[in-house]
Amino acid sequence: MMHEWRRTVLYSFFTVSSFILFGLSGKRLYHTMQPSLHNGKTFYEPIVAELLLSSLLGMIWACYALRVIHRRDGLGNVYAAVFVVLTPLMLFVLHLIGAAIATSVWAFCIDFHGCRALAALVTSAWISWTTLTSTLVFEAFNIANSLGCSECRRGPCC
Domain residues for 72? Predict the structure, then answer.
């Protein structure tokens, strides 16, 4: 496999960034559920729950993808190729929505010292999304090479 080591590095990095995003989202969710901090009222931000879920799904998918990368030589059939692209594509959309909404909600936190955790949460969401974007590109290359389209690197595919 031509791009196997790149995919392995990207999925490993995505696993780590998803784990960090999961921890930061969990910390924020725990913080907002403390009644003593907000005049006896609890609240939660739905975008934090979405980031928590997308990071959990991302960790699960990345671990599975790493296992699949090292288990077989090629994709074998079209259904496997579709599965390998559609799942990261779904995660791509989840991470993009989460990072974009979190950025718009907490844009005021850039200049405040007390918003470091929120800034780290937003940064981690964008890093995960960027890594996932790169992973999708290499998955597309892998599928093109596996389906016999070696001319894709030199010009229009097939």
Answer: 4-147
